[in-house]
């Protein structure tokens, strides 16, 4: 059985994780570079903005409160611009990478959970769900009972 809402959440999170990886690759590359074009800075700041908006929308959609291990906003806010990365001490840069990694792991844990939900839903038959839904309605059950009683009454009258 396919749950469109669940599929949408998985796609949103997968897309965000890809952007998150792009962000890390960009700041890692920037740490080895001394100067940046205005276009590179603009692209980096735009990526930061997109990440912040998408992350908040994602957490709202998933109804997840951030945990201590999820340092996504901290990583985004620590890197002011590409030029600032060159001013990081080795310790600051290691902390940035550690925070990015912790966030990456936390995001992938959520993705794994969503994918497990999809797998479980795949095991459920659509017919079984319809049957369950149909028979959980008391009016439908009452109508079926009346039909069965009428059929039995008809059979008893005409054949016995």
Question: Describe it for me?
Answer:
With about 160 residues, the protein is an all-alpha fold. It has 2 domains: about 5-125, Four Helix Bundle (Hemerythrin (Met), subunit A); about 125-160. It has 7 helices and no strands. The model has no long low-confidence stretch (mean pLDDT about 90).
In short:
The protein contains seven helices and no strands. It has about 160 residues and is an all-alpha fold. The protein folds into two domains: about 5-125, Four Helix Bundle (Hemerythrin (Met), subunit A) (Up-down Bundle), CATH 1.20.120; about 125-160.
The value of Rg in angstroms is 27 Å
Beta-strand level of the residues, as a percent range?
A: under 5%
Report the total helices.
7
Main beta-sheet annotation: none
Q: From the coordinates shown, what is the CATH architecture of the largest domain?
A: Up-down Bundle
Anisotropy-based shape = rod-shaped
H/E element order: HHHHHHH
Q: Which CATH C-level class of the largest domain is it?
A: Mainly Alpha
Question: Low-confidence parts lasting 5 or more residues at pLDDT below 50?
Answer: none
The average pLDDT value, as a whole number, equals 88
Number of domains: 2
Q: Do you know the CATH topology of the largest domain?
A: Four Helix Bundle (Hemerythrin (Met), subunit A)
Distance between the amino and carboxyl termini: 46 Å
Summary tags:
single chain; 160 residues; mainly alpha; Four Helix Bundle (Hemerythrin (Met), subunit A); 2 domains
